[in-house]
Design brief:
The protein is an alpha/beta fold. The protein has a six-stranded mixed β-sheet with strand order 1-4-3-5-2-6, covered by helices on one side. The chain has one domain: 3-Layer(aba) Sandwich (Lysozyme-like), CATH 3.40.80.10. The protein starts with 23 loop residues before the first helix and ends with a helix. It is 27% helix and 8% strand. The structure holds zinc ion. The site of zinc ion (ZN) has 6 residues, from loops.
Amino acid sequence: MRDHPHEPNKNPNTPESNDPGMSRRSALRIGATLGSLVAMSGVLGACGSSTRTKSVNRIGDPLPPVADFKPSLPSSGSIQSPAPIQTASASLRELPSFVIPRTRWTTGTTRAWLADAQSPIRRITIHHDAISPSPSGRYDDSVRRLIAIRNGHLSHKWADIGYHYAIDPAGRAWQARPLTYQGAHVKDQNPGNIGIVMMGNYEQATPTPEALETLNRLITHEMSRFRVALSNVRTHRELAPTACPGRNLQLRMDQIRRPGGTLASAAASMNLA
Ligand SMILES: [Zn+2]
């Protein structure tokens, strides 16, 4: 019998079950870790929990060789619309060409015995990591941020980092938890739900144009290949009582999804409105 103490939708009685994706506690842990690395201060909680802890999680993963990954970034108008292969696991394993593979930032693998296999994709949920300040935009800084977030989630005995993708302020998209596994980012609503996190606290900061362009591109790509309707592209706060993804990112998500917005227009062109 498998045990899933870390996956919030699996064990409703564990403390972690109150933390869909990431708690203030884990954010504080991450904040402490990041603070030790880059002298950050003012770290705020992520994804809506109010539990506190004094424990500090150390970053233990060795950094993989870091050579700046320069994905091609054509305009959103050139995004391909591959035929949906909804049920094929091959499609879940296929990484969008502009996304940096997770092997570029971690040697760790998903604890498969703690994770559930992915269900057919039917929704996409947007988060922020709620950590201030935002990373610098330097490649190495984003790598450290990803490692810190993952270590925070592993400290809850989760299978891996909870989100499937992360986007940094420079507009890089990073693979996080493999899409073949169900994520851990919205309590009780993780099956078939792609989790995308924007690095930064968007209750305070404003998302960069580069990050927003990549977010729009990644959402459009995943909507297209998995046939996700626009109405199923949500923010965390639309699904649960949390401030995530912060008011400034929420505003931009509202803008791109309303009629005439970039995402709404893309959805209409794909018959996914
Ligand atoms: Zn969230």
